[in-house]
Amino acid sequence: MTAHHDLPWPDARARARAAGRPLPAVSRTLHHARDHVLARPVTALTDLPPFDTSAMDGWAVAGPGPWRIRGRLLAGDDADAVGTLRDGDAVEIATGARLPRGATGVLRSERAKVDESLLFGDVQQGGDIRPQGQECRSGDDLLPAGTVVNPAVTGLAAAAGYDELVVVDRPRVEVLVLGDELLDSGPPRDGRIRDALGPLLTPWLRTLGADLRRVRRLGDDLAALRRAVESSQADVVITTGGTAGGPVDHIHPLLRDLGAELLVDGVAVRPGHPMVLAHLPGPRPGSGRFLVALPGNPLAAVSGMLTLTVPLLRRLSGRPEPRPRRVRIAQAVTGHPRDTRLVPVSGDMPLHFSGPAMLRGLAVADGMAVVPPGGLRAGERAEVLRVPR
Ligand SMILES: Nc1nc2c(c(=O)[nH]1)N[C@H]1C(S)=C(S)[C@@H](COP(=O)(O)OP(=O)(O)OC[C@H]3O[C@@H](n4cnc5c(N)ncnc54)[C@H](O)[C@@H]3O)O[C@H]1N2
Ligand code: MOO
């Protein structure tokens, strides 16, 4: 594929989506499967409930009352211990206990009266019993491939009998934050400023399902940058800064030296136009490695994340594309004559402090509106990209 200078923004995003393919399927314990995507459907390994169960604390009874009390069953007990109930028999039972054979219903404790050794109350046939297989039968499809493993998925998989799940491996990501001027602590001083991107990208990449291996600070040193990229074990290397044509902007020389294939080299978007997506020989056979070069201006870097990194990581980790969110933007937004603009919004309101070097608008935003060349009229609909919350 040849490089395109200042590719239209929708084409850049489409190219990032199409650049990779899902990583191999791997087996992970339930704990470690969190935030991965199912590579295979989850089918039930058991009926759920696996046996007829009492839904309430009370009495398992057989036939019409009154009943003779014959014993007690707690959750986890072997129901055979009380044998088969005959009409007129009752067994004290706890929620979740296996129903004894012959039981026709459960009488809740608050509706029961015990007099001597006799039990009185009204109970419906089958009342307060959770029948075996009510939620699923063994072999039923519970969740399709492509489902993100959230805490409820983990719980359901455990209930259905799984110790491990087959999931798409998570992309290993390494971040290289470039710039001699950056400080890691304290206020800006002596012409130097704080690194805003390490702290911004670290939690964001985790929520995107990336296996974030490390975030490294590098100075403006081409040889060190080259060593870092060549020795990285990541599937995706993300750099920040150095994308423009300044004296210490090393990204383009680096990619030339490495013989990288430039998939996106400059995008018609404000902020963020110098962003780059490149393909390099990689750590896994056949798959290659991606390098996303984000511009150094912080909001321009966020624009690069939304345009290139988010679609690429979704694809590699097997996540489906979410349905685009479209919002009627309440106020007119000035457009760029040729380029797309990405503008922080809260609900339907465009926000101030949206310059390329600013994060003040984004920090209170719930999205970035995609403003086409020429701008938006008040009340016009626009796609709004989700931003990290
Ligand atoms: N002659 C031109 N100069 C520039 C152009 C251009 O088209 N022609 N484009 C401008 C645009 S737009 C952007 S965006 C930047 C892109 O710059 P780089 O990717 O090369 O980034 P740097 O020069 O390293 O830094 C730019 C700016 O951002 C600050 N920065 C960098 N990293 C961080 C960080 N981790 N946290 C906070 N701030 C950071 C850096 O100090 C600079 O102020 O180029 C323009 N120039
Ligand atoms: O990418 Mo720059 O201004 O467009 O920040």
UniProtKB/TrEMBL annotation:
Reaction(s) catalysed (UniProt annotation): adenylyl-molybdopterin + molybdate = Mo-molybdopterin + AMP + H(+)
Q: What is its EC number?
A: 2.10.1.1
What cofactor is needed? Mg(2+)
Which EC class does it fall in? transferase
Domain MoaB/Mog: start-end pairs: 174-315
Q: Do you know which PANTHER family this protein is assigned to?
A: GEPHYRIN, MOLYBDOPTERIN BIOSYNTHESIS PROTEIN
Q: What does this protein do?
A: Catalyzes the insertion of molybdate into adenylated molybdopterin with the concomitant release of AMP.
Q: What is this protein called?
A: Molybdopterin molybdenumtransferase
- Organism listed in the record: Yinghuangia aomiensis
Specify the taxonomic lineage: Bacteria, Bacillati, Actinomycetota, Actinomycetes, Kitasatosporales
